[in-house]
């Protein structure tokens, strides 16, 4: 997967989570950029069909109420760069600060881990299992 596709997937996911339309996201970007993005421009971005400037990545993070590193996140896929592919581990590693003097490095890792846990717990199947477990506890009573 190309980096632009990874970013596009995150834009689409975050926009959907925030229940924003393509037009609403485009208008929100206009508050931070020279002008709003059209519905088509947002759609192209979500499909990984455009490159992004630093200003656009910053505006996207602000408009989607997230951080720039979150826009780059992928699951366990290799990232294709012009010179070759990067392993998922190496790619995830660059999203965290590697500076030895940065005290927030562990905090950043914790934030990413908590986000991942939140995504897993939000899955409908897990929510159903949790409800089934609560009902089973109620039916079984205090004896078990």
From TrEMBL:
InterPro entries reported in the protein's UniProt record: Cro/C1-type_HTH, Lambda_DNA-bd_dom_sf
Leader peptide range in chain numbering: none
Record-linked SUPFAM superfamilies: lambda repressor-like DNA-binding domains
A GO term, aspect molecular function: DNA binding
SMART domains the record matches: HTH_XRE
Span of domain HTH cro/C1-type: 11-71
Protein's name according to its UniProt entry: Transcriptional regulator with XRE-family HTH domain
